[in-house]
Amino acid sequence: MATSPPDCDKAVFRFAPSPNGLLHLGHALSALTNERFASLFEGRLLLRIEDIDLSRCKPAFEQAMRDDLDWLGLHFASEVRRQSEHFADYAQALSVLRRRGLVYPCFCSRQQVRVAVAAEEAQSGRPWPVDPDGAPLYPGLCRELDPSEAERRVAAGEPHVLRLDMKRAQALAGAAVGYRVFDDSGEERQIPARPERWGDVVLARKDVPTSYHLSVVVDDALQGVTHVVRGRDLEAATDIHVVLQRLLGLPSPAYHFHPLLIDETGQKLAKSRSSESLADLRARGITAAAIRAQLGFA
C-alpha cells in the first residue's frame, strides 16, 4: 500500500487526541511538546481527531478539545483529519495485509482465551507471557483454522476480530526492523523493534473496523507526518507500527517519547480516572500562561 504523502520539504508533526472525554494536563503537555518540536524543526503541526470508536467519541468532546487547544494558544496547519471519515483508507490497508496472508479471523471470546492460558500455565507450571500492557499473549487458538471453515463462520455472522499473524509478519518484514528516535535537541539514533512481545495483535473488530495501530500508521503516511511525538506509555506500541509500515510499504517517521504526568497516587493522568480537566482548571481561573509555565513552556 505505497502512498504519496503531501508535497512538503518541512518536518510535519501531529497532535492526535481522541474525543472520548475531556483533555487534562497530560494532553496539554503532549500538545505543547509537539508545538515546541515543530518550532525547533521549523515544521508544521497538524491536528488529527482519533475517533474510530464511534460509541465513545462524541461531538461535544471534540468541541471541548478544540476550545481547550484554542485557549492554550495552539495553532494547527491545514485541515483537521477526522478518522471516522476515512474508514475506507483503513479497509484498503487491511485488504493488503489479508491478500498477503497476514491476517486471520479469531472467534475466541475473552473467556476462552483466559481458559486456554490457564490450561497452558497448569500444564507447563510457568506463567504465560504477557504483552507490554500486561495482557496475556493470544495463544493462537484460531491461527491454524482451515480457511474455508473460517470463511463459513464469518459468513454466518459469528462474532470475531481480525488478528495479525505476528510470526509471519516478522518473517516478511525482515529481521532488521527498527525505528529512529530523536532527543530534545533533535539528534537521532536507531533502535531495534521487538514486535514479537505483542503477539498476534487485533487489527479490526466487527463494531470498530480498524484499530489504533492500523489507523495511525495509515494516517501518518497519508498526512506526510515525519516526526511523531507522544507519551512514553505508547513507546512499546511503536514495535507494531514499524512492522505495519514495512508490510504496507509506508515510510517510518522518527519518534520522540515524552515523560508522563503523574498524580498524587503515582498513576498517570487519564480520562478514565477522571483526572482534572483543562476545562476545570480554566473554570477555576487558571490562565493558559500559567499552564504553559507549569509544564515548562513559559
Automatic annotation (TrEMBL):
InterPro entries: aa-tRNA-synth_I_CS (IPR001412), Glu/Gln-tRNA-synth (IPR000924), Glu/Gln-tRNA-synth_Ib_cat-dom (IPR020058), GluQ/Sye (IPR049940), Rossmann-like_a/b/a_fold (IPR014729). Gene3D superfamilies: HUPs (3.40.50.620). Pfam families: tRNA-synt_1c (PF00749). GO terms for biological process: glutamyl-tRNA aminoacylation. Keywords: Aminoacyl-tRNA synthetase, ATP-binding, Ligase, Metal-binding, Nucleotide-binding, Protein biosynthesis, Zinc. Residues 13-277 form the Glutamyl/glutaminyl-tRNA synthetase class Ib catalytic domain. One of its GO terms (cellular component) is cytosol. Belongs to the class-I aminoacyl-tRNA synthetase family. SUPFAM superfamilies: Nucleotidylyl transferase (SSF52374). This is Glutamyl-Q tRNA(Asp) synthetase. One of its GO terms (molecular function) is glutamate-tRNA ligase activity.
